[in-house]
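Quick start: what a row looks like.
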Amino acid sequence: MPDIFDVPYMERTRDYYRAQGYEKDYVWAHNTQTPFTPLPKPLNECTVGLIVTAMPDTEAGRANRLVYSTLSTPIPESMYTDELSWHKSITHTDDVGSFLPIAQLMVLVDEGGIGGIAQRFQSVPTEYSQRNTTESDAPEILERCREDNIDIAILVPL
């Protein structure tokens, strides 16, 4: 019997949804242009923001299906990840720093590697609609990043 990791991700995902009864395969996002731009200033002067797919581990965060802003300090001790797709039998999400690297970024600030960390980090729902992501969540994230004067955004999917 082959190991689950021997089957390529996209093929495994396609097979999973077919087994669920879906007849139309998921169409993976494909962008002909990337929205990346050169840094506006040296890295050690840039403010870094985090965008994660985990929600705050609060009643509001667990119920939320919209873009959500949380203060970067104090660093949350836990995040709500139960509804996200990750291999729950072989890993865990107890180490918040592994997917919300605020403490690691603070070290970079102290060492002079980056200018600062955004006052808030953003949580974005794991939406399987490319249209909602493109037309709703992404513009909302961009607006919040601009409000926080973020020069660099680190995207951390879980």
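That is the whole record. DSSP finds four helices and seven strands in the chain. The chain has one domain: 31-156.
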